[in-house]
Amino acid sequence: MAKSSTPSRERIVAGAADMISRRGLSATSIREMAKHAKAPLGSTYHYFPEGKQQLATEAVRYTGEWVARSLRKELEAGPAAGLKAFLDLWRKVVVDSDFHAGCPVLAVAIEEPQDGEIPPALTAAAEVFEQWETLLADSLRAYGAQTEQAAQLATLTVAAVEGTVAMCRAKRSTEPLDRISEQLLVLIAAAAPK
User: Fold this and answer.
1) Using CA atoms, how far apart are residues 171 and 188, in angstroms rounded to an integer?
2) Which among 64, 57, 5, 63 is positioned nearest to 30, based on CA atoms?
3) Alpha helices of the chain — where are they, by DSSP H?
4) Sign of the torsion formed by the C-alpha atoms of 80, 85, 90 and 94
5) N or C: which terminus of the chain has fewer CB atoms within 10 Å of its end residue's CB?
6) What is the pTM of this model?
7) d(Cα 81, Cα 54) in Å, to the nearest integer?
8) Closest alpha carbon to 85 in 190, 192, 188
9) 44-77, pLDDT tens digit by residue?
10) What distance in Å separates the CA atoms of residue 115 and residue 119, rounded to the nearest whole number?
């Protein structure tokens, strides 16, 4: 998170992402997100006049792009390198937060929509998951995987890592990440042998 005496939009978004990753969306108010980002509530509403859903949507997109940047860079060395980076990124999040934080994208995705409407933050979460899957699938195809197999393995990877991050928080251990790492690397090696 950016350290600045003036509240910037990005700092508020990063603070909201961190807060949602720890407490979920329903359990977090816009006032708490502003306080967590050390931003005045007025500034928060200035940047996000539509309120909590707008800020949550931006927090999901911010996290999505943060992860995607890392994936893009590491996937240049191949899908195994991308997977390792993806796992290391989430391992760092859970360890550095003493197992209090997870993925804000997942946190938003599991929230129950109110009034049967699909909130923009949930739509953003679906788009982020799709982005991560596409990056992984493209890399798998580039390294020899068949199109459908690449798509399936990319979905499996994102789902496994996201679920495992939740398990790490519950167990207060990175052992679940270590376990899936080995198996996903075997699957990737078999699917993308280049």
Assistant:
1) 27
2) 57
3) 9-23, 30-36, 41-47, 52-75, 79-96, 104-109, 120-142, 147-171, 175-191
4) positive
5) C
6) 0.91
7) 34
8) 188
9) 889 999 989 999 999 999 999 999 999 999 999 9
10) 10
